[in-house]
């Protein structure tokens, strides 16, 4: 009812200069969607928001304008990429590839008798799984494994190392979630940025290598910092972890030998990335490079799906599109991407007057700030909002503000925008922060709310400081 009320109020309210009458309806639809995404769900609020934007006349008058909104929203390559990427990478999870990745990493002999090496390997494993599939998959896979290890080592719930280990594990997962800019909720933000800045359809919204490098460097830096603080400052008792034995873990986590379809899917990951990145480095006069540039992320993803659908193992398709999509496809994310990207583009359009309104309203707060002051405020706001609402939605809401004030201050908006993108995934302090945060808070057998807040708040604060003083300068170099 609150979400519907937000939409209705803006629909009938007199325009607030310089927002236009159409702009008021678009703002109401978008803010209503943002609220409902956090409080209710993603699917029907997205459809309702797009319906109201279509009825506002933003896409044109009458039935033609109404259809244009939905055709443009769902016909965007971002939405199609989301559909096919979820199936392609979901097939990896269905084939059990993530289990083999986890077992391989957790059975490295470097962990023998080295508690902090063991924790680092576990957390890095969580990071890898989170980037390839999702933090939810990472938790579902890693909770049973790590709990079994703790039980074997006789580490009890009351031992001091317990909360440090499990909260740290979750933190690394949530930091790693936005690693790939062409899949998951982060695609919503990256695509919204590209749409608002007018990036041509044949170009990627952000340089993929720079984006992934920023996430990887900052996550690893934060993980190492956490380990250093544990080892040299907090110094919890880790003697029981010295009993970790890679060979024993290998025996306790038996998996059958990998078959060739699983090996092919594992090889696909680096080949997929190479196919996406090659056009950025090599001359497009080369026919192969030109073909890859023409295909883009959407085409490359479809080609791999075709390949895995064609090849067969034991008389069955390696990738059964229907079965994989039934288990792995997230309709909420799909509809949310369509609505969020289209709605964000509408907000930034001059026809709505929203950009000018934001400049006038926020200029007293942000207008007189230095570059670092502006960055600090935006990153802090992103961190606070994301712990109470939908991650991607909060970033999309902040994107017009970032772009407007970067333009006013003469700053390159990409480093600020990508910093905000990373910050909105530092979501762990409340159950509403993200679906996987809700899972974490719900596992009272592993986490106590007090422990999550006691450790999570400093982790979030250190992450904020790192991104302001290290991440942002690094992003300026990378972008």
Automatic annotation (TrEMBL):
Domain Citrate transporter-like as annotated: residue spans: 34-420
Pfam families per the UniProt record, alphabetical: CitMHS
Membrane topology: Multi-pass membrane protein
Gene Ontology, cellular component aspect: plasma membrane
UniProt key word Membrane: yes
Alphabetically ordered keywords of this record: Membrane, Transmembrane, Transmembrane helix, Transport
Transmembrane segments: 34-57, 69-91, 116-143, 164-188, 208-234, 265-282, 288-311, 331-348, 368-385, 416-434, 455-475
Single annotated GO MF: transmembrane transporter activity
Compartment(s): Membrane
Main location: membrane
Statement: the UniProt record of this protein carries the keyword Glycoprotein: no
Full protein name: Citrate transporter-like domain-containing protein
Species: Desulfitobacterium hafniense (strain Y51)
